[in-house]
Amino acid sequence: MDGDVTTIHITQALSSSMIVDLIEKYPNLEEITCSTSVFKRTSKKYIDALKQLDINVTIKYEWGANSESNGIEFYVKKLSDEGMTAKQISQKLNMKLSRVYYLLRKSKAKFDNRVRKHDHSEIKRLNEEGLTAKEISEELDIPLRSVYYVLNGK
Asked: Where are the domains of the chain?
């Protein structure tokens, strides 16, 4: 028995046996929280009966795990803003590269400091001069798909 607990969160619709078990386990229960979908699946009779026992059933969202970043995303963004690449940040903080990219996306950081494999301005300039994608590919000795990637604004 958990006598000190006054609020619990449930993830399935209430049943008569569940209500009896909850009241026995939590004698000081004052509130039961649940998601909207669970609330809609719970009988109004059960909600009214609990209300007569001074136990409120309310909707509350508890989705997903809590973030355990401890403010690291701000430090990652700061390093990115200082010009470090994701790979350099990953090495400096001894963190997976995918995690660095995740934190940068989460903080809506701009990736302008990344090193591009091909000179986008040169590809665009040659296109404006009238060269075809295939001719640009051959002149700069880069894959044709990379030329199309740049020209299509990716």
From this structure: 7-59, 65-115, 120-151
The whole-number average pLDDT for the span 121-133 is 89
Q: What are the residues facing 9 on neighbouring strands?
A: 33
The alpha carbon of residue 93 and the mean position of all alpha carbons in its chain are separated, in whole angstroms, by: 21
- The first and second tokens of residue 149, run together, are 């990637």
- Read off the pTM: 0.41
What beta strand segments (E) does 55-127 contain? 56-59
Q: For the chain, where are the E strands, in sequence order?
A: 7-9, 31-34, 56-59
- The CA distance from 75 to 77, in Å, is 5
Cβ-contact 46, 39 below 8 angstroms: no
